[in-house]
Amino acid sequence: MNIDFLHALDDIEREKGVSKDILLEAIETALYSAYKKDFGTKENVRVEIKSQSGQVKVYALKTVVEEVENKNTEITLVEAQQLNKSYNLGDIVEEEVTPANFGRIATQTAKQVVMQRIREAERDVIYEEYKQKEGELITGSIQRFHNSNVFIDLGKIEALLPPSEQMPGEIYEMGNRIKLYVVEVSADSKGPKILVSRTHPGLLKRFFEIEVPEIFDGIVEIKSIAREAGSRSKIAVASTNDNVDPVGACVGPKGMRVQAIVDQLNGEKIDIISWDQDPTKLVANALNPAEVIHVIIHEEEKIAEVVVPDFQLSLAIGKEGQNARLSAKLTGWKVDIKNESRYLKESKQGDEEE
Q1: Cα–Cα distances in Å, from 82 out to 31, 39, 77, 96?
Q2: pLDDT tens for residues 65-118?
Q3: Which of 7, 34, 144, 200 is geometrically suited to a Cys-Cys bond with 181, CB 3.0 to 4.6 A?
Q4: Yes or no: is domain 3-122 CATH 3.30.1480.10?
């Protein structure tokens, strides 16, 4: 190696943020391994890169002993003092053993180490950048497909959209730009892994934060979200300002705000309801658009018994039980829906038995 190579390390430190000292240490470690491998030595050695000239020196390390048992690692006191009279028993003697052609090996090894460290540093920078985006929205272009997985080009790196995170019925085409929710950013030996989603409730939350200024400003708060991606979602909101209607703010003038979100989710239906600390009111609101006569709360079982008009039963339950299922998920209560006739009949039987 020469002095120009050392100057190049200074440039790398400035441009890539990789410490010159760390690079030199890594190069010395790699050269140690290269020397051991290429020259089959059994000696203990130390490799040093001269900071001024860039020269690489290899030194054999030998312990000063009275009687040598291993000539590769030991030297007699007499021999040591021939080199330097200050040596005593137990001291370590360094004797230069740099091979004649080691400079060429050193240069090749150093280049490989530097390139590897630069790649590692770049991976670390990308990892840190995207790690901060966990739980956020990100936009990318659909780049390729493999085994039902969709790979998204984010510019510096690819993200993975697996089948479990894809919206049912959504069509993904090469080159299309798409908004996604960053579920997790992890690191392995090959670099950062970014898992993104189109089904995560967080995607819906971030869309509302973008479209509804009152949510972004903290006036309206999203309390809970229940989502069956591609089909229907429910979102419960509350206001910190009595003069601001949280549902109205989310719906927007002529429904424009919520419609903008529905369009980005390919027509997914979104029910927006008012959050209430009273579970009876919360469960009744959650079953919207169904009309609710009353709600009986069973605290210990965490069950909400809901009574609806006879003609509203199918609406309250929803297609394949979806409305009831989403309401339960939104409120945290198991929802048991009964029509009014059944409820009155069961109540009457209960009274007669008593």
Answers
A1: 29, 27, 9, 15
A2: 888 888 888 889 988 888 888 889 999 988 887 877 777 777 787 778 778 877
A3: 200
A4: yes
CATH architecture of the domain 137-197 equals: Beta Barrel (2.40)
**Identity (one letter) of the amino acid at 280?**
T
Question: CA-CA distance, 18 to 9, in Å (whole number)?
Answer: 9
Of 303, 242, 305, 239, nearest in space to 272 by CA: 239
Class of domain 200-275 (CATH, top level):
alpha beta
Nearest one of 215, 237, 212, 214 to 224, comparing CA atoms:
237
Q: Confirm if 181 and 194 have CB atoms less than 8 A apart.
A: no
In the chain, what are the domain boundaries?
Answer: 3-122, 137-197, 200-275, 278-354
Domain 278-354 part of CATH 3.40.50.720: no
pLDDT tens digits along 231-242: 999 999 999 999
Specify the residue for token string 């965490």: 302
Residue 35 structure tokens: 């020397």
Cα–chain-centroid distance for residue 141?
Answer: 19
Contact 64, 75 (CB under 8 A): yes
And the tokens for 159? 């993200």
Distance CA 46, CA 29 (A): 9
Hey, what are 324's tokens? 């009831």
Query: Closest by alpha carbon to 275, among 233, 225, 312?
Result: 225
Hey, do 3-122 and 200-275 end up sharing a CATH topology, with the first three levels equal? no
DSSP 8-state secondary structure symbol assigned to residue 164:
G
Q: Residue 44: which of 65, 58, 64, 30 has the closest Cα? A: 58
pLDDT one-digit tens code per residue, 167-218:
998 999 999 999 999 999 998 877 889 999 999 999 999 999 999 999 999 9
Tell which residue, 29, 28, 8, 193, has the closest CA to residue 118.
Answer: 8
Global pTM value: 0.72
Could you tell me the two tokens for 143? 């780049």
